[in-house]
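Record now logged underneath.
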Amino acid sequence: MGFSCGIVGLPNVGKSTLFNSLSNAKAEAANFPFCTIEPNVGIVAVPDARITALAKVFGSEREVPTSIRFVDIAGLVRGASKGEGLGNQFLSHIREVDAVAHVVRCFEDENVVHVENKVDPVADIGTIQTELCLKDLDTASKRLDRARKQSKGGDATEKLAVALCERLVPHLDQGKPARTLVVSDEKEKDILRDLQLLTSKRMFYVGNVDENSLGKLDANPHYQALLKFAQDEGSLVVPICAQLEAQISELEPADRPEFLASVGLSEPGLNSVIRTGYELLGLITYLTAGKQESRAWTVLKGSTAPQAAGAIHTDFERGFIKAEVIWWEDLVALGSEAKCREAGKLAIEGRDYVVRDGDVIHFRFNV
């Protein structure tokens, strides 16, 4: 499954530092190096302590985390919607990703130039949002014109499209992203989805702060302004210090815990960025474990047992018979499948079972 999260931001906000840190961080598991598919696309392991816990129970020879793609999208400037700078390329790259991590500068540093000559995270978000809304406004206006013409023949879908676009166009015109438009009708949701609007993408913000702010975010006015803006919009914010993350990512995995402790962190901030991107995409992880390997598998939230089996191999889905499911904490606490069975902690589930994040599953199938 190739789910991807694009990293966007104005120039000099720490976007490339963040992407390079992700690319250096590598998974703790030696068999899962970060790999760059194109110069600006990287596959990053999703940190998951549950795999290590299960590997200990089974004496697994290797641990295999699941992954997510991060795409470093060229810096955006004013006028991108009209093709300024790398505008067209930037906008087409956003169209191709499933979610967006918007890096926002929340630090003062006279040595780092700001494109607008002042540090103002909310204004920075506005600059990018305006460009995306302008591009979407163009798309929505064209769709409205087409719907008005085609609805004259009494086409019900086109009439709905007119109703939707008549609300959407002024919404975008006010600089509000499409994802904040209230749409309850399922058919309208389909029409909106077909428009593939840039501002419909799920988005979270990464507040890039200085190292001194990490333990006391309350005292950073830039971060607080970002937090308030995001909360009003219903978006998530992850605070990180990109410069510090770059240092952490250069270290050998064995040396990281000591360095993290020295700066008052329990884990790299990158882990939160990766996990937030993963969750925002509506993804969950189930696990398989045995002597050979303990492995994490990615499925969409709401997937049934046969669909989850298909993540391993299509034959597993086609010939699905049943799933033996144990909650990962029960397996770690009791120490074996046999003990979980004895304690009534192993459930036999059928085709309708909806997989939970953290299920350890053994599939029975027949092809």
Confidence is low (pLDDT under 50) at residues 26-36. Residues 80 and 87 are 4 Å apart (CA to CA). The first helix runs from residue 15 to 25.
